[in-house]
Amino acid sequence: MTTAIYPGSFDPVTNGHVDIATRAAALFDQLVVGVYDRPQKTLLFSTEERLSMARVALQDLDNVEVKSYNGLTVNFARSVGARVIVRGLRVLSDFELEFQMALTNRKLAAELDTVCLMTGQEHTFLSSSIAKEIAMVGGCLDEMVPPHVRAALKEKFHRLGAQADSKVRIVSIRE
Ligand code: ADP
């Protein structure tokens, strides 16, 4: 039985991630999606939120489970008995970083291999960051993220907007 992991920030999960997970689930016996606890990125959603959104997005794939992890990705792979790390490729610029990461991970754990899967054409220019930017200004996300993620983004920015508003109001009252 071959188990693979698909690690990432998933802040939040997008249709591009679902595309890669679906392709990987068809190739490997078991796929464990790893939601990285503390990536070197500014996150919008908590680990719990990212985990639960990814779980709902991938619930129809029988051989996929979603877990969070911290520390080295290779240690996460070993802990679930995986020998493959799946990553997604969109455009040429993804390649350099993925190549560098794959070789670093191989140095850390020679028994693991990285498999990069090409995204569907419709997701080429889709990333969590782009989805967040569009959500922030109230744009249409229909083709980009599953409906529950759309709702979560709307709710998050609504709350953040309300917080920003109240700060502005407090400042103006003081002035
Ligand atoms: P990370 O912080 O590890 O890059 P991401 O959640 O941004 O986490 O991405 C996880 C993986 O999914 C990466 O390999 C990334 O290239 C891939 N990915 C992100 N968006 C897409 C997409 N639209 N199509 C295919 N792969 C994607």
Structural notes for this entry:
With 175 residues, the protein is α/β, with parallel strands linked by helices. It is 49% helix and 18% strand. The protein has helices at residues 15-27, 47-57, 73-79, 92-108, 128-136, 147-174, and strands spanning 3-8, 30-36, 64-69, 84-89, 113-118. It has a 5-stranded parallel sheet, sandwiched between helices. Helix 1 links the parallel strand 1 (3-8) and strand 2. The chain is globular, with a radius of gyration of 18 Å. The mean pLDDT is 93. The structure holds adenosine-5'-diphosphate (ADP). The site of adenosine-5'-diphosphate has 19 residues, from helix 1 and strand 4.
Share of residues in helices: 40-55%
Average per-residue pLDDT, rounded, comes to 93
Distance between the termini: 66 Å
The structural class is alpha/beta
> Uncertain spans, ≥5 residues at pLDDT below 50?
none
Number of strands: 5
Q: Sketch the major β-sheet.
A: 5 strands, parallel
Proportion of residues in β-strands? 15-25%
Order of helices and strands: EHEHEHEHEHH
| Hetero ligands | adenosine-5'-diphosphate
List the total number of helices.
Answer: 6
Rounded to the nearest angstrom, the radius of gyration is 18 Å
Q: Globular, elongated, flat, extended or rod-shaped: what is the shape?
A: globular
Please list the strands of the largest sheet in the order they lie side by side. Answer: 3-2-1-4-5
In a nutshell, what does this entry contain?
The protein has about 180 residues and is α/β, with parallel strands linked by helices.
